[in-house]
Design goal:
Length: 256
């Protein structure tokens, strides 16, 4: 059984946005309060996280785990990588951690977190990591499960999604090529981004995300990477098809 915990379901600024008086930002519904997007996967007493944004520490305090067996990155933007330093408590307890990232993401991490990747005179408090290189056409083993990378485009920016068994996680999506959509057939659960109602040049809006759901026909779909401009969680949820849901922070679901 694959257990999925939504650590964060918000867009790059989170909800509420600092200083905003938008009604969704002022909402008292806890489902309208969204940290930066991230998800935790658990099976066979193993724990893997996809993306670690600036809220990573806060997310794992809310969803404590005894160890971290691997950290996967979709792409290099700050809302998906800025929390990398917060792997240190795991490093101090269990040693070097496995990171999974494509070459472009690795390049960005080496620049932003140079102290982690130093080979000479390394700061003793810096964590040690094992880099595993992702290739869009090369499945890989993760804790005994086969993972199929799925490349989507964030406008022209490549982003890596992941299929594990009949579960797929795709964030920061604008388009998905035909050959990549073929990797997404027969899903039990699809998690995919749906930023807002109005069109956006870099992200799927609600209508576009629903079109992909209609084409792929997963048994269940959860939207993530949500901005305040999508609307109130309760109101939007009431308008969605019966097999489509808005994810929210700390939601836990299971895939067979």
């Amino acid at each position: 059984m694959l257990k999925i915990t939504f650590l964060g379901t918000g867009t790059s600024q989170g909800i509420p946005i600092i200083g905003s008086d938008h009604p969704v930002c002022l909402s008292n519904d806890p489902r309208d309060k969204r940290l930066r997007v991230s998800v935790m996967l658990e099976w066979d007493q193993q724990y893997f996280v996809i993306d670690c944004g600036p809220d990573f520490r806060q997310q794992l305090l809310a969803n404590p785990i005894p160890r971290l067996d691997g950290l996967l990155f979709t792409h290099e933007h700050a809302d998906h990588t800025a929390g990398l330093d917060d792997i240190r408590p795991f490093f101090f307890r269990q040693g070097a951690l496995d990171l999974y990232a494509d070459i472009q993401v690795q390049k960005a991490l080496r620049q932003r977190f140079a102290y982690i990747f130093e080979t000479e005179n390394k700061y003793p408090g810096a964590p040690t990591v094992n880099l595993n290189t992702l290739h869009k056409d090369q499945p890989f083993d993760l804790g005994g499960k086969k993972v199929i990378p799925v490349e989507v485009l964030h406008n022209q920016w490549p982003v890596t999604g992941f299929r594990i068994d009949d579960f797929a996680y795709l964030t920061d999506v604008k388009t998905i090529a035909k050959e990549e959509r073929e990797k997404l057939q027969g899903l039990d659960i699809l998690v995919i981004s749906a930023l807002r109602v109005a069109p956006h040049p870099m992200h799927l809006n609600l209508e576009e995300a629903l079109q992909i759901v209609e084409e792929l026909e997963p048994k269940r779909t959860y939207f993530t990477h949500i901005s305040h401009l999508l609307g109130f969680h309760k109101e939007v949820s009431e308008q969605l098809p019966e097999t489509v849901f808005l994810a929210y922070d700390n939601l836990q679901i299971e895939a067979s």
